[in-house]
Amino acid sequence: MTFRSRLLPMPKDGGFRMDGYYIWCGSVVKAEDGHYHMFASRWPVETGFPDGYRTHSEIVRAIAEKPEGPYTFVEVVLRGRGGGHWDAQMVHNPAIVRHGNQYILYYLGARSPATETRAIGYAYSRSIEGPWVRTSDSLTLMPDSNNPAPWIGPDGRVLLAFRHGPYMRIGMAEAEAFNGAYRVVQEDLVPGKKLEDPFLFSRGGRFEMILEDNGGSVSGYERYGVHLVSDDGLTGWRPHESVIAYDHSLVREDGVITLADRRERPQLLFDEYGGATHLFTGVRVGEETWNAVQPLLVD
Predict the structure, then answer these.
(1) pTM of the entire structure?
(2) What is the DSSP string of 76-110?
């Protein structure tokens, strides 16, 4: 069964929205309280889309009783912390991972509004409610690193896919543990392709990624979601035999179909058996944005 064929209609009132804010980058984890917690980016609508995120983005937490939502805002988790830190100006692109008794929240930050200052780091906590301990320095990756996509194996080993540079290349770093030293092992996983927003996962003994095909050079359609696979996660990344993961059509349970102007930042939620159950994407229709949730048939 292909990824695209597993997509089910979206609930009418699912996902996460906030009046007065652009909402993007929804990453969800089931916590020790049995609820579903979404870590998302938000920035005020008066600052504009998308450029307002460069100066005003902050990471918030919202909660729901079921994966589809609707999600309710709980708190601001991280803001730009000033003081000359690597994430002084803003924080964006949250990716939450639960490993053992720790929650690790990867994100990008910037020292100033300039694009070239973007970098990736993380915060960690033993509780979904914090307090969150931030790294004092960003990870040493490539210039202008963003879009962090972590995978943490049973032994704690980390693979971290990310986008970097002006040409939208996907790189890969690895570390022995989330709080260990990260080293870049691949600078361009899919040579010559303009890609962003990776989500990295593993199943059935191989690695997979869902990404945004920014230039349309993999799927033939600009900004569609694409599905790539690799045997070891480091080399040989290639299109899945059914490469298109999703398009821009937002199909609801009540039969309403809306064509999104933008649909990005794919993230998956998995059940206790390792099956992907829900796809989360940031969507824009006109001037409205929200984190949409689309259930999946579990294969």
Answers:
(1) 0.97
(2) EEE----TT-TTSSEEEEEEEEEETTEEEEEEEEE
